[in-house]
Specification:
Blueprint (H helix, E strand, L loop, with lengths): L10 E8 L2 E12 L2 E9 L3 H6 L5 E5 L2 E6 L2 E8 L10 E7 L2 E4 L8 E8 L12 E3 L11 E3 L5 E4 L3 E13 L4 E18 H19 L8 E5 H4 L8 E5 L23 H14 L1 H11 L6 H18 L1 H10 L7 H11 L1 H4 L6 H17 L9 H23 L3 H7 L8 H16 L1
Antiparallel strand pairs: 1-2, 1-4, 2-3, 3-7, 4-5, 5-8, 6-7, 8-16, 9-14, 9-15, 10-11, 12-13, 13-14, 15-16
C-alpha cells in the first residue's frame, strides 16, 4: 500500500523517542487545511519531554502499513485531566504536522538513502522528439502502427552519485482507444548512503536545474527511494514512497523550454557538473530566482529579487571585473551600476545590446533599485511599465549568466532571445533608457 489516501482517517499505533526512550501512543492521520496532520493522545507526564525533542520523527503502523512522519511540528496541544480517582492518567491531545510522510517504512532513527526517484511530467516540454512515432504504411506483414524511437537519456556522474533523466511510458486500454502516456523520470543513485533530507535536496537541485531552462516553476511530485538497509539485503530491495505534506499548488505554463534537450544531450555531463558546483557556491542566486518563478514575489519585489540575484552573481563570480568598471568610471566606491555594466558587457556576445546603452541602462537599474531600498527622494519614482521592463531585463540577464556559467553555447543562448516571453526586450531597454533620461532632468 503506497497510497496516502489509504491511511487517512484510520487509527494507528505510533512511536516517538523521548529522552532516549520510546513512547507509544494511538493516533490518526487526517486532513486539515489541505495538510495531513497527526492527532494523538499521550500521557501528560510525557508531554514536556515530547515538546523538547529537537527532531520529532514519528513512526508506526496503520492497518499493518509501516509509516514514518518526518520533521513533525506542534500545531495544537490540549489537556484532559480527570478529577475523580478513576484508573486513568491525565493525558494530552496533541496535533502534529509532518513535513514529509513515508509509506512502507517505519523507522525511528535516521534514514539513509542509496537511490531516489521521481517523475517530472513538465520535462515533456523540454524533449524535442517523441517516444513513439506513427507508422502510416503498416500491413499484415508489418502490423505495428507505432514505432518506439529509443530516445536518448541524459546521464551524468557527479561527486554525489549518478543522475539519470530518461523517459518511460504507461498505457491505458478501453473499448475504443489505447492511450500511451510519456513519463519523464529522474533517478539519482548515490555513491554513499545519504541522509534522506539531503537526498530530497539533491532531487530539488535537479528540479531547480531544469527550472532555469524552462523559465518557470516545475512541480516536484511524490518521491520513491531505496534505503541503505534494504539495499544490503540479498532479496530485491523495496522502494518506499515519500509524500510532501506542504506542497504548493502552482500551475506552470504549458510552454516549450527555452533550452531543449538538443542543447544538453551532447555535453550533459559537463553541464550538470557545472550546475552542481554553481548550486553549491551560489545557492542564493537559485533561491531568489525560485521566489520569482513561484510568484512569491511580484511587481516591485520581483524587480528587487532579480536585482539582488544579479548582484549576488556579480559578487561571487565577477568582483574584479566590476572593480575595473569602477576604476574606469573614477568612482571611489563600487556600486550596483558598475556591476550591471560589467555584466552587460560580459553577456553582449549573446545579447546584441548596443554598447552606448550599457551605462544608461546600468544607471537606470541602480537608481530604480535604490529608490525602493533607500527611498531616496532625490531619485525619480519608476512607473509600472519601467519596473516591469527592469524585471524582464534582469530576468533575461540572469538566465544568460547561468547558461554561460553552465557551458551552454552562445548561439543557443542567443536563440532564446527570439522567444515570445522576451520578444520585447529591445522595447524594455528603451523604456529603461527613457527612465534614465527622465532621472537626469
Amino acid at each position: 500500500m503506497n497510497d496516502l489516501k489509504e491511511i487517512i482517517n484510520k487509527i494507528g499505533d505510533f512511536n516517538s523517542s523521548i529522552s532516549e526512550q520510546v513512547c507509544s501512543f494511538l493516533g490518526v492521520l487526517r486532513y486539515e487545511d489541505q495538510q495531513v496532520i497527526l492527532e494523538g493522545r499521550i500521557d501528560l507526564e510525557l508531554l514536556n519531554g515530547f515538546e523538547e525533542c529537537k527532531s520529532k520523527q514519528i513512526w508506526g503502523y496503520i492497518n499493518k502499513t509501516p509509516v514514518t512522519l518526518l520533521n513533525c511540528s506542534f500545531k495544537q496541544i490540549c489537556w484532559r485531566v480527570f478529577d475523580e480517582p478513576i484508573d486513568q492518567k491525565a493525558e494530552a491531545i496533541i496535533t502534529l504536522c509532518p513535513s514529509e510522510i513515508i509509506i512502507g517504512k517505519a523507522l525511528g532513527r535516521e534514514i539513509l538513502v542509496k537511490e531516489i526517484y521521481t517523475t517530472m511530467p513538465a520535462l515533456n516540454l523540454m524533449f524535442h522528439n517523441h517516444v513513439f512515432e506513427p507508422l502510416f504504411d503498416f500491413s499484415r506483414e508489418k502490423p505495428s502502427v507505432l514505432e518506439y524511437t529509443y530516445p536518448r537519456e541524459l546521464s551524468a556522474t557527479d561527486k554525489y552519485g549518478t543522475l539519470r533523466v530518461y523517459r518511460t511510458f504507461n498505457s491505458n486500454y478501453s473499448r475504443d482507444a489505447i492511450t500511451y502516456n510519456t513519463i519523464p523520470r529522474i533517478e539519482y543513485r548515490f555513491t554513499k548512503a545519504t541522509k534522506i533530507t539531503d537526498a530530497i535536496g539533491r532531487i530539488a537541485s535537479v528540479r531547480n536545474f531544469f527550472s532555469f531552462f524552462a523559465n518557470h516553476y516545475i512541480p516536484l511530485d511524490a518521491l520513491e527511494f531505496r534505503d541503505a538497509d534494504s539495499m544490503n539485503e540479498e532479496v530485491l530491495s523495496q522502494a518506499y514512497s515519500l509524500f510532501f505534506n506542504d506542497r504548493e499548488k502552482i500551475v506552470g505554463p504549458d510552454e516549450p523550454f527555452l533550452i531543449s534537450s538538443n542543447a544538453l544531450q551532447n555535453d550533459f555531463k559537463k553541464i550538470w557538473n557545472n550546475w552542481v558546483s554553481f548550486y553549491d557556491e551560489a545557492k542564493h542566486v537559485v533561491n531568489l530566482f525560485y521566489e520569482v518563478i513561484c510568484d512569491h514575489s511580484t511587481y516591485i519585489n520581483r524587480f528587487l529579487n532579480m536585482a539582488q540575484a544579479v548582484e549576488v552573481y556579480s559578487c561571487r563570480y565577477r568582483e574584479q571585473e566590476a572593480k575595473a568598471i569602477q576604476k574606469q568610471n573614477k568612482s571611489k566606491k563600487l556600486f550596483l551600476k558598475h556591476r550591471i555594466e560589467d555584466i552587460e558587457r560580459y553577456i553582449s556576445d549573446c545579447f546584441a545590446i548596443k554598447e552606448e546603452w550599457f551605462t544608461p541602462i546600468a544607471q537606470a537599474i541602480s537608481d530604480m533599485r535604490n529608490f525602493f531600498t533607500h527611498y531616496d527622494k532625490n531619485r525619480i519614482e519608476p512607473s509600472y511599465d519601467e519596473i516591469f521592463s527592469g524585471s524582464y531585463f534582469l530576468r533575461f540577464t540572469l538566465l544568460v549568466l547561468v547558461y554561460k556559467k553552465l557551458g551552454i553555447a552562445n548561439e543557443t543562448i542567443a536563440d532564446y532571445k527570439t522567444r515570445i516571453v522576451f520578444g520585447r526586450l529591445n522595447d524594455d531597454c528603451n523604456t529603461l533608457i527613457n527612465y534614465f533620461t527622465r532621472s537626469q532632468k
